[in-house]
Amino acid sequence: MPNLELKKNELQKLYPINTAINNKGHLVISGHDVTELVKSYGTPLYIIDETTFKYNANEYINALKKHYDNYLILYAGKSFACKRIFKIANAMGLGLDVVSGGELYTAIKAGFNLKNIYFHGNNKSEDEIQMAIKNDIGRIVCDNFYELELLQKNAKEANKVIDILIRLTPGIECHTHEYIKTGHLDSKFGFDLEYLDVVMKIIVNSKNLNLKGLHSHIGSQIFEIEPFVDSVEILLDQCKHIKDNYNIELSEIDIGGGIGISYTTEDDPISIDKWAQATTTRLKERCKTLGLNPPKLICEPGRSLIAPAGVTVYEVGSIKQVPNERKFISVDGGMADNPRPITYQAKYTAVVANKMNSKELEKVTIAGRYCETGDILIKDIELPKVTHGDLITVFSTGAYNYSMSSNYNLAPRAACVLVNNEKSEVIIERETYDDIISKHK
Ligand SMILES: Cc1ncc(COP(=O)(O)O)c(C=O)c1O
Question: What is the pTM of this model?
Answer without folding.
Answer: 0.95
